[in-house]
Amino acid sequence: MHIEVLKDLFETHKESRLYHRYITNAHIQPLFKKLESKMTIETIGLSVLKKPVYGIKIGSGAKKILMWSQMHGNESTTTKALFDLINTLSEDLDSTHHILNACSLYIIPILNPDGAESYTRVNANNIDLNRDAQALSQPESKILRQAFNAFKPDFCYNLHGQRTIFSAGKTNHPATVSFLAPAQDEQCTVTSNRKIAMELIAAMNATLQMVIPDQVGVYDDAFNLNCVGDTFQSLNTPTILFEAGHYANDYARDITRKYIYMALLQSLDHLALNRVEGVNYQPYFDIPENDKCFYDIIIRKALVNSEKNGSYCDIGLLYQEILKEGVIAFMPKVAKMGDLSSFFGHQEISAHGQQVLNADNKKLEVDSENVVVIVNNEKISLLLK
């Protein structure tokens, strides 16, 4: 699909009622009314706290794709992108008609509604659902497995979000979108099944490089059968991990959603128009592996002590995401102090060899929260602008 078509479709069909980071059942339920006449929307189970988990069926084609988002409740960017995609496919468009004829989608927009409401990674039993694929100890894990068994997908899309620390390789480029074709055995064998997933990822990467060059990464493929992606891959269903990451100044992740949307729609277009058999998998290995090269803020060359010939250090801060009255706030917290010359800051501040103090005129400490710092008697806000 042409890049300009993808851009136009996003701008036309972006779901404006979903924005920022806090997305729950209460946010998506009002969207169903305009969609229910065009697709099947059903409750497929209940969470630990008895909240509904929804499934959405759209398309009539033979190629079946199962997608799920917010397995981790605080990873909502892909949920926004899914509804942008659903809005697009809900209309009879010349540019997407072939997708609905060739593909059938089953979408679980929020697998972990309890975690979404409390804005936590885990479910209400404090279990990471992405480590419960074998034990199936949680109702949400069983719901996903039942959907998998009933739908019998040809492809699985496991949709997540990643932290701002990740870079595309050891570079000053954030990993705005990341992928993985999970391993299906301990040896991480490049099986025919994985090659199919790799081919799809390569196709999406080719598109994304036109809009976010050098900002796509892949994850290490270490095998863990307790992870859902590894389990489904081991069941011989080509599975792709999607990770929505950071774009410059986009802490709301309302720009990143665009690139997830473009990747999703491009993959469906590729599936609809091609026999995807894994022949064109090799470009997958050209995508750099994710590294952890970023802090949200780095304060450079801070004076450690005021003695003659005093030593200097860098101060790395990360934002902590805090739910306050239905809104996600970002609290700066000192993560590390030392030589951070091999790291990058999404924001960088120079202390010019001066002491850096907190609001109480005391030295900063690791794990301390600081909304402002004082450098040479000047207050500098660390809050997002």
How is this structure best described in words?
By secondary structure, the chain is of the alpha/beta class. The chain has two domains: 3-292, Zn peptidases (Aminopeptidase), CATH 3.40.630.10; 295-381, Urease, subunit C, domain 1. The chain is built from ten helices and 17 strands. The chain has an eight-stranded mixed β-sheet, sandwiched between helices. The protein has a four-stranded mixed β-sheet with strand order 13-12-11-14, with no helix packed on it. The longest helix is centred in the C-terminal third of the chain and has 18 residues, at 256-273.
Features:
385 residues; alpha/beta; Aminopeptidase; Urease, subunit C, domain 1; 8-stranded mixed sheet; 10 helices; 17 strands; 26% helix; globular
Strand-helix topology:
Elements: H1 3-13, H2 25-28, H3 32-35, E1 40-46, E2 52-59, E3 63-68, H4 77-89, H5 97-102, E4 103-108, H6 113-118, H7 139-151, E5 155-161, E6 166-168, E7 177-180, H8 192-208, E8 216-218, H9 228-234, E9 239-244, H10 256-273, E10 290-292, E11 294-303, E12 312-324, E13 327-338, E14 344-350, E15 356-357, E16 372-375, E17 378-381
Parallel strand pairs: 3-4, 3-5, 5-9, 7-8, 11-14
Antiparallel strand pairs: 1-2, 2-4, 6-10, 7-9, 11-12, 12-13, 15-16, 16-17
InterPro entries: Peptidase_M14
Domain Peptidase M14: 18-271
Cofactor: Zn(2+)
